Amino acid sequence: MIEFKNIKKQFGDKVVLDGVSHVMETGKSNLIIGTSGSGKTVLQKCLVGLFEPDEGEIIYDGRSFTEMDEEERKMLRQQIGMLFQGSALFDSMTVEENIKFPLNMFSKDSNAKKMDRVNEVLERVNLKGANKKFPSEISGGMKKRVGIARAIVLNPKYLFCDEPNSGLDPVTSMVIDKLIHELTIEYNITTIINTHDMNSVMEIGDNILYMVQGKKEWTGNSKDIIFSDNKQLNEFIFASEFLQDAKSMRMLEAEGKLSKEQLKKMEENR
Question: Which CATH number applies to 2-226?
Fold first, then answer.
């Protein structure tokens, strides 16, 4: 669990985070959503220590991250996995070498044991046998899966994902969403995802934080969001092409992901 209380951050005269408090739950996909400039990226950077909040407290499973010294933070970061928006793979390294990189930095295991772990996570993300390929030789979806494999290779307790579906087609996006969600449950990880993808919100939104101009505007899950009376949230959600498309909504109903009441509510807001 990651809890943050009254987080404030400003750059010059611009207030980017204005007293944000929330709890990110373990074993769930915790989503941060909002328009560009809402503060969600700055919030995520504060949570991992890339930015220091001006006020407030960040707590990792009862341990105050805010009060930790640099050595304590370094130890905690070994429990954090990161999936970057552009995958951030090293072009000059093979898939195997990219995934092994955190092990070389933080693990004292033998090379054989490291390779066992590399192959284990490769198989878990359905990339068995892709060891010797370079990033230039694989698709965008495969790069994301390599990024996920690298993020989980150290068995993290916390996983941060920045726009994991950026640049992916809808089908591949759903594959990545499902994989992240499965790993979150399987390894009991506290997963925090910044996203604009409304498909992700509906599919894996266990715990959603919606932000507007640096403030917490709404919280709930993927079922709650359909029935929300929050005007700003509805405008944000129903502006999505995914939810405006009547065919997509009918498909969701047919698949049992939407009830008739939910569908009616969505159509009224179109």
Answer: 3.40.50.300
